[in-house]
């Protein structure tokens, strides 16, 4: 297919006149029959790549994705774009529905599936009976034990891909160091894959860190930011409880439209909050990192981290939700000395000493069910025939990798020189020259006015108390 | 708080927490149904389906710490004096569901999921909008609603649904009608979450959960009286004629034809104990059960005498019966207990 034809297709199917950075290059390579590893920043329309390829190449597009919520978001988005032949194969589906889906794969164009589900014999068998247009590994960095988001079930993907007859493969990730990229192509068995790399740098996002003396000062600064800086804004927390508490507190203090969003909400509530935010009905979302995976809102002006992100790679992803319209936006970390211990504690949750690992193997040989999160991870290895020594080594390697990631993050947080330079160096990139629209250096004020980010009037909230009126607006055309 | 609704399920006399839990999550064994009957919470069968046992038990422990409950023996709890005062206040303050009994015969949760998407689809179609995020991506729900919509689509569908919802909501207090409408999802209206509605109506978030569930039940009851409503077609396949299981229903039919229990067991290729379990299930779920066909006047007199001094029938013990009637099967004791419970 020529580029002209691709542009015509883009216009006809999606109504766009130009591709986002990287899209065209990746699509062309895939259509030439090459496997591709694409490192593209969040918000570059990664799903458009496999949709467009899927509309040209006959057969099923299989998208491997790590999270159920992420899959559901993607299904909803494809539904929204008018694509009905799409389904997510998850453990949440009732057995009958799952069977029906597997028996009717030819009526589906896009299938989202977790690695765990994909490794089930019934699923694999069903997939070998239909032609595959493309095998997509989303969040491909999860495959690397070197990287920050390693998931053991991603390790079997190379083997599964072979079983599926080595279909044309697209590996997608938003951030990956050279080391992680090497891991991805090696583990998936596609060392010859074309690599398409785009910078993680988002020049329109101003980078800032506020170092504060204690929790009270942090809250005060948060309030000051959401009332003083243009929204809409996302505030990230590391715990559900803190998310709820701070959302309530902010709403009372500021009168702004604030909502909490985390995995503890029902699917219905999560849907409603997302849609309210997209529709501009909310000023601030307080969220755990679960929020925003599937959000496609172009005009988010500020992303605040009330708690530290886990890694720089996560941070880049999370702030990448701001300013997708290219307009100036603000990324702010609120830091109190010692906050890094919270990240360490979270890392501890999935760590285990050689002794604990040996004990867990004992549990496994006695056929007792895994009782903790760590135990569930270990279970995976025992089921795949790994031995205690190998797993202990792997865990030690993971612990070291996590500490290294934390150090890199802290280098960014505590930097007294250009933060963008620190960030980009970590991703093996060269930074542009620092200027006043780049980042906040130690002691410098936030250049809100220069960036056009000063908040204007607060919108007034009106709720309709007449339910008949509200009901007729929903169902009657001319009301 | 969830704890408020749990406190409402206890009494001044001891109740087994696990029994109550099994009622709430919809276990239909005879012992659970019997617990529901004697504790007066059978109408809530299956109404808190998703709550894990740990959460439930942690809540009872919390209520003990708070001084509202006390535990006379392991696994049993009863109200303290403070708990009684607290419970009385909660009955007035917290929303009390009125239609939970619907859970016994209708797949309420399924209908909630189907109707939510169906109303969204109708609302968007009424405004000729075909680009929107569906409120659920569950392929089973989507397929059912799609088939329904294909059958009923047309210019009259949205006005019909509007009129029907208006008619139903007019039967409710204004607060409930507003909650129902504001929680809907449709054209340019994502709908409000339980937490947002709770803040707006000055209620606890858990109350909104209870209110919205009860609204679904009340709407189902209304639809059952209006089978011409387009939404009845989504509901009808989810409705059972009776709360009694099909197998117990069959045993009952045989029994009503005048069968001896052993003969029924043989004909149905069931154990005698299973036939008895079936009849106990029917007796618990249908107050009009013909107890006199199994309990003779003489037996009733005898058992009445044994328990003459024990008005609280949860304190009755089978060994008291065995002392005067060693041959009597447990089945008749339990049946007598159920009869008393139904007709007190
Ligand atoms: Zn800089």
From TrEMBL, chain A:
Q: Name one GO molecular function term.
A: hydrolase activity
Alphabetical UniProt keywords: ATP-binding, DNA-binding, Helicase, Hydrolase, Nucleotide-binding
Q: Where is the Helicase ATP-binding domain?
A: 27-194
What range(s) does the Helicase C-terminal domain occupy? 221-365
Instruction: Report the domain of life of the source organism.
Output: Bacteria
In terms of InterPro entries, this protein maps to: DEAD/DEAH_box_helicase_dom, DNA/RNA_helicase_DEAH_CS, DNA_helicase_ATP-dep_RecQ, Helicase_ATP-bd, Helicase_C-like, P-loop_NTPase, RecQ_Zn-bd
Q: Mention any one GO cellular component term assigned to this protein in its UniProt record.
A: replisome
Q: Tell me which Gene Ontology terms the entry assigns under biological process.
A: DNA recombination; DNA repair
User: Which Gene3D superfamilies does the protein's record reference?
Assistant: P-loop containing nucleotide triphosphate hydrolases (3.40.50.300)
Q: Which Pfam families match?
A: DEAD (PF00270), Helicase_C (PF00271), RecQ_Zn_bind (PF16124)
Please state what the protein is called. ATP-dependent DNA helicase RecQ
User: Which organism is this protein's natural source?
Assistant: Lactiplantibacillus garii
From TrEMBL, chain B:
Q: Per its UniProt record, what Pfam families does this chain match?
A: HTH_40 (PF14493)
Q: What is this protein called?
A: Helicase Helix-turn-helix domain-containing protein
**Species for this entry:** Lactiplantibacillus garii
Question: Residue ranges of the Helicase Helix-turn-helix domain?
Answer: 247-336
Q: Which domain of life is it from?
A: Bacteria
